[in-house]
Structures are given as structure tokens and as C-alpha cells.
Automatic annotation (TrEMBL):
<keyword id="KW-0238">DNA-binding</keyword>
<dbReference type="InterPro" id="IPR050204">
    <property type="entry name" value="AraC_XylS_family_regulators"/>
</dbReference>
<feature type="domain" description="HTH araC/xylS-type">
    <location>
        <begin position="171"/>
        <end position="268"/>
    </location>
</feature>
<keyword id="KW-0804">Transcription</keyword>
<dbReference type="GO" id="GO:0003700">
    <property type="term" value="F:DNA-binding transcription factor activity"/>
</dbReference>
<protein>
    <submittedName>
        <fullName>Transcriptional regulator, AraC family</fullName>
    </submittedName>
</protein>
<dbReference type="GO" id="GO:0043565">
    <property type="term" value="F:sequence-specific DNA binding"/>
</dbReference>
<dbReference type="Pfam" id="PF12833">
    <property type="entry name" value="HTH_18"/>
</dbReference>
<keyword id="KW-0805">Transcription regulation</keyword>
<dbReference type="Pfam" id="PF02311">
    <property type="entry name" value="AraC_binding"/>
</dbReference>
<dbReference type="InterPro" id="IPR014710">
    <property type="entry name" value="RmlC-like_jellyroll"/>
</dbReference>
<dbReference type="InterPro" id="IPR018060">
    <property type="entry name" value="HTH_AraC"/>
</dbReference>
<dbReference type="InterPro" id="IPR009057">
    <property type="entry name" value="Homeodomain-like_sf"/>
</dbReference>
<dbReference type="InterPro" id="IPR003313">
    <property type="entry name" value="AraC-bd"/>
</dbReference>
<dbReference type="InterPro" id="IPR037923">
    <property type="entry name" value="HTH-like"/>
</dbReference>
Amino acid sequence: METFSRTIRHDEVLGLEAFCLQGYAQPFPRHFHDYYVLGFVVSGERELLCNGLNLQVFPGNLLIFNPRDNHECVSTSRAPFLHYLGFNILKKRMEEISMELTGESCLPQFKPTVFSDESAGNAFLELHRLIMQRSDELRKEELFYVLFSRLFGKYAHTSLQSRPLRSSQIKEACEYLESHASETITLDDICQRVSVSKSSLIRSFSKQLGLTPHSYLMSIRVKEAQTFLKQGIPPSRAALKSGFADQAHFSNVFNRLTGLTPGSYQNVFLKKAPSSNDSD
């Protein structure tokens, strides 16, 4: 029998609450929320009744409950223990998200309640992990807008506001990332510099460069770290000097982008050739 646990984390930057239910087998009686709930089923199966519709919920499904959606659910005998991740979003915050993405402050009605979407699911899982770990604010914000742009574009039946950036704005954003790579950078910092919204920045940056702002920043930091490593600076110091918060994250990103660990990379350049005797 699985042990039940519940974890909740409030994220002030994003203005939402993240939670995790694990090992939950009890039914949820009929109820509703005064806020939005976005969820992801990691494991377990449920029979859900929402607004009079009978729905089946399986691992990998996303769920969206609008405010005042009446719903209840019970576990199935095949997979009774639920592992469920979710975000709670207040109506006021959703109005702000709507204004950012569509140019209109409104409370969208998302449909359907249960759906599968690999792109949204992947963004959800990474975003949830970063919030629970209290880490990586730029990547966290970036994923937030990637996820909600997807949800508004496909499931809220509203038109996303399109304000593409000029090439000069993209260039200025890149220059800002390069000159402040060793510092903590947020989307607000970049957007204030180039006078655009967060959603417009992410869409245009990715379209023109093929990279998100966070991916671009990681590339710059790894490049700087390579310079430090060649100079013989220890990997732990090279990580901090190039803007990484900890060595574990640094090693992971460095290995992913170069195919080598920082130590292995450094050894390539610091390895001394064997001395030779010139005398006959």
C-alpha cells in the first residue's frame, strides 16, 4: 500500500501555487473551486464526473478545471493510487495572463476538461519541477509563458496577440544576455530593456534564433566557463564566475552542450606533453 503525501509550494514570481498528491486512493466528493486548476496525472486512473460529463482519466492526461466547474472523481480498481501534480491559479492572476497573451483582460473558459498534449505536458512537468525545487527563475518564467501560450492558443478559443520583435530588438536582447550572463537574469529584465511583453519576447526570440532566451543564456555561460577552465580555474569557481548557481547544474548543462564534463574538458587543455631529453 502506498503512503499518501501532499506537498504545496507557492511561487511569488509566477503568482501561482504548485502542489503534488502522491499515493492518494480516496474519492474526491463533488465540489468546485473559485480559481483555476491545471493538473497532470503521473500515475493512477480515475473516473471523473465534471459538469454532467463522465470522463476517464489516465496517466499522461492534462486536466483544466475552470472556476465553478462542478466535479467529483473516484479511483479505478486497475490503478487506485493517484500521483497528481497541479497548479492553482487565482482568477485575478488569470486575467493578467490573458492580458499578456491576448491583449484582453478576461476569464477564459478552457475546454475540454481532460486532454492529452505532449508539448503542453512536457512544459508542465519541467515547470512544476522547477517550482518545487525553487530553482532557475529565467527558465521557469520562460516555461510558464510557453505553457500558457499553448493552452490559450488551443484550448481557450481566444486569439493570441501577435507582436513580433524587430531584428534590432532581438539583437539588443542578445547583447543584454551576453553582458549580464554572470548575473541573475529574469524575463522582466530583458523585456524592460527591449520594451516588449514576455510572451512576445519568447515567441519572436525562438522564431528568429531557434533558441529560447534561457537556452541562449546557457550557451553563453558555457562558453565563458570554457575560457575559465582553459585558464586553470577549478570547475567549482568557473561555475560561479560564469553565472551558474551550483556546480551540479553547471556540470549537467556543460555536459549536455559539449559532451564532456567540466573536469574532462579542462584536462584536455591543461594536459602537459611528456618532457623530452634533448641531449644525445
